[in-house]
Amino acid sequence: MDHATGGKTNVSLISATLLSATCMIGSGWLFSAQLTAQYAGNWAFLAWLLAASLVWIVGLCLARVVAIYPVRGALVQASALSHNRIFGMPFAFANWFGTLMVVATEAQATTQYLSSAIDSAFLIENHVLTPWGKALALGILAVYLLINFYGISLLAKVNNIITVLKIFTPLFALTVLLIVVFSSDTTSSNFSLVSNQEFGFGNAFSAIIGAGLIYSFNGFQISVAFASEIKNPERNIPLAITLSIAIITLVYLALQYAFMASVPNDLLVANGGWQGLDFDSPLLDLATLLGLHFLAMVLLADSVTSPSAAGYTYLGASSRVLFAMASVGQMPRWLAVLDPVHNISRRSMLTNWLLAAIVLVNAESWAELMVIVTGYHVIGYMAAPISMGALEPQTRWFGGGVFALLGLILLTIPPSSLFLVSISLTVLICLYGFLQIADTGAPKLVAFALPFLAYLWFLYFVQIIWVVVIVSVVFYLLVSTQLYVKFCKTYRKYIGEY
After folding, report:
1. What transmembrane ranges does the database entry give (predicted)?
2. How far apart are the first and last CA of the chain?
3. What is the Cα 224 distance to its own chain's centre?
4. Which of 224, 205, 176, 204 is nearest to 23 (CA)?
5. Residue 188: inside a domain
6. Which residue(s) pair with 129 in the sheet?
7. Which pLDDT value is given to residue 496?
8. Residue 382: inside a domain, yes or no?
9. This model's pTM is above 0.85
10. Residue 283 maps to a domain
11. How many domains does the chain have?
12. What are the strands, taking DSSP E only, across 78-213?
């Protein structure tokens, strides 16, 4: 067993499923019901099913790669294993940076919720954390580090306990809200508003990113980050992905119905329908409005627990992503050193913690970062179908469909956010290429790094759906063809990555 896969495999199917489920109940679920209703009205339920289906098929692609290479940080290593490390750089940077930014956003969300709970202008003012608020958020980051510092065993034990609490709170909220719904006569009128006719399939599709559904579901991949530490990964990883997505989808669908059915009808009519509904803290404000003060207290407690649990799990995952990048030469190899006792790379973990702290200090709000983080996530997902098609050519047409769908999803990101994601990846790749040009040569750097960057900028400049679908499928088939893959692998052997 090589340096990337060595170590104990002591994470069970249940723990792997709970690891993914934990990160799918972070800060997103506290806002998603209102945001999805605003974006899609009655089509909100389809939006959740579309988002769940999307992450599930991406998970299936990734599971096939992990079945062949059950390595630590498998998502970020996928394209490096199937092609080479330079071709995989855009996906590696996107996955790593997206995962890293989640750690900062969850710590920030925890602080914001706590500030709202005690109504403190000392911690937050005008929806922006004060210096004292940021100091508290950094303290929360330190707790994330402590939980992760002693390896997967401690993380899994803490996470199993926290997950029970996190699953209980949405179920408790659902139960209370449904009791209100079934004792009310306004439910049907909420779903038969005249304004609902303004929504359609396009709204459901755009809500996948705009309402934070991908952000909410992104935790499905966390079990993959621990691939080398999970028992029987070929069987348990796809099962963990499927089970966690199925469980959380049911929770989100039920929550969406309970929220939409329990909002007072006269409030909706007064605000012109779902688009005009604007609670600052949707579930908390709704519980207060309905006089459900005990539920409000439970939601306040969970608003601290849920983001924190997602935050410390993402810190563990991001350290494994950075380890994976270092192990294949995409980052300095001194980061790819495992602690002999706890089987983790503490150097990678500390590096990620410092970077998350920098992001946290410079960020203003949770909402500001959510869409950008999602853009990085979707680009990171694109590595899965490409690598699957390269490693198992018989799956290329399925992979091409998944890749084209992800391309369409990127079109729903606001142009300014897509530009920021694209330019940041371009700058990182150019910097990496500058450092590597002496050893690699410009022709090979262009042949490996340029194709995906060109595709990404094409998405920014061309917004015609049928053109994007055709170009996406053609691009996918070209980079997953055995001729191109063989060319990439020849270069990989030449520079001696393994």
Report:
1. 12-31, 43-66, 86-104, 135-156, 163-184, 204-227, 239-263, 353-376, 396-413, 418-435, 455-479
2. 13
3. 12
4. 224
5. yes
6. 124
7. 39
8. no
9. no
10. yes
11. 1
12. 124-125, 128-129
